From TrEMBL:
Residues 13-303 form the NADP-dependent oxidoreductase domain. The keyword Transferase does not apply. The keyword Oxidoreductase applies. GO terms for molecular function: oxidoreductase activity. This is Aldo/keto reductase. It comes from the Bacteria. PANTHER family: AFLATOXIN B1 ALDEHYDE REDUCTASE, ALDO-KETO REDUCTASE YAKC [NADP(+)]. Keywords: Oxidoreductase. Gene3D superfamilies: NADP-dependent oxidoreductase domain. GO terms for cellular component: cytoplasm. It comes from Sphingomonas hengshuiensis. The lineage of its organism: Bacteria, Pseudomonadati, Pseudomonadota, Alphaproteobacteria, Sphingomonadales.
Length: 335
């Protein structure tokens, strides 16, 4: 597979988001099935695996430590701190002491002494970003991590963080349907030489044919996301249907079209779709060779013009922890 660069880290043009193997969408696969998928991804040339302390309260990191530790030299390992689960509750702590504890726990769960790319999962408003980044800079000096990343943070915060220590990658949700990074973050990353990692590049399955109704299983986080439930879902699925028609027109799947669109946004943009299905994994990676002409990009953008999608990305509590800038229509709704 072709490579792209995050800071100085060469990675496959499409990585693998590992979250849904342990977290967020209700049912999770058996450990042996998850291990089979992870190894198949590596077999197919994926060299970026993305996890976090939050995912399953450490379960996802343990899964990677058990499933692919024997292939540790063949991929870039990315994980995250600051967000975590404690007694089933989500906690946010960006203090240097908490970061150090989280990192040591992650290294133990991942069965390694080094994490290649370590992100601050969210900004803790009670801790200056300079202190949190400073903690990661010290971890890098100690050899525990290789590069520093940020997730769902504003352009202004990225600037402040980068002034303390070079940032290799910024991660935010990005797809034809979710365009928040275009407000300011993408331009900031390009100017500072920071790679951009797009999570949920098929819009949590909505752009991959996986959402037809709000019939999610218990524990699925989409049950609390306004754009994935009524009264917004039926409206949003009309835009999705138009998008799917474009995929049919050029002979690819909707998921591949969405990934192709993300890849077309610049050679430092790396999508990390997640899946629990090897068939879907192979389909996703097929997008690496998809080249979209400018007319197709324009037609996709027209489907998802401002205001086309109704409902917030997150419920209010989770949105309060997101620093990435709102789009103008989201600002009006919030106001």
């Amino acid at each position: 597979m072709a490579e792209r660069t995050l800071g100085t880290l060469p990675v496959s043009a499409i990585g693998l988001g590992c979250m849904n193997l342990s977290h967020a969408y209700g049912e999770t696969p058996a450990p042996e099935d998850a291990a089979r998928l992870l190894n198949r991804a590596l077999d197919l040339g994926v060299t970026l695996l993305d996890t976090a302390a939050l995912y399953g309260g450490g379960a996802n990191e343990r899964l990677l430590g058990e499933a692919v530790r024997h292939r540790r030299d063949s991929f870039v390992l990315a994980s995250k701190c600051v967000l975590d689960l404690a007694d089933g509750k989500r906690i946010l702590d960006g203090s240097p002491a908490a970061i150090a504890r989280s990192l040591d726990g992650a290294l133990a769960r991942l069965r390694t002494d080094h994490i290649d790319l370590y992100y601050l999962h969210r900004l803790d408003p009670n801790v200056p970003i300079e202190e949190s980044v400073g903690a990661l800079a010290r971890a890098r000096e100690a050899g525990k991590i290789g590069a520093i990343g940020l997730s769902e943070m504003s352009a202004a915060t990225i600037e402040r963080a980068h002034a303390v220590h070079p940032i290799a990658a910024v991660q935010s949700e990005y797809s034809p349907m979710v365009r928040n990074p275009e407000v300011a973050v993408l331009d900031t990353c390009r100017r500072l030489g920071i790679g951009f990692v797009a999570f949920s590049p098929v819009a949590r399955g909505m752009l991959a044919g996986a959402v037809r109704a709000a019939d999610y299983v218990a524990g699925d986080i989409r049950l609390a996301m306004p754009r994935f439930v009524e009264p917004n879902l039926a409206h949003n699925l009309r835009a999705v249907a138009a998008f799917e028609a474009l995929a049919d027109e050029i002979g690819c799947t909707p998921g591949q079209l969405s990934l192709g669109w993300v890849l077309a946004q610049g050679d430092t943009v790396v999508p990390i779709p997640g899946t629990r299905s090897i068939a879907h994994l192979e389909e996703n990676l097929g997008a690496a060779g998809l080249v979209l002409d400018p007319d197709m990009i324009t037609r996709i953008n027209a489907i998802f013009a401002p205001g086309a999608i109704r409902g917030a990305r997150y419920p209010a509590g989770a949105q309060a922890q997101v620093g990435t800038e709102l789009l103008p229509d989201e600002e009006l709704a919030a106001g």
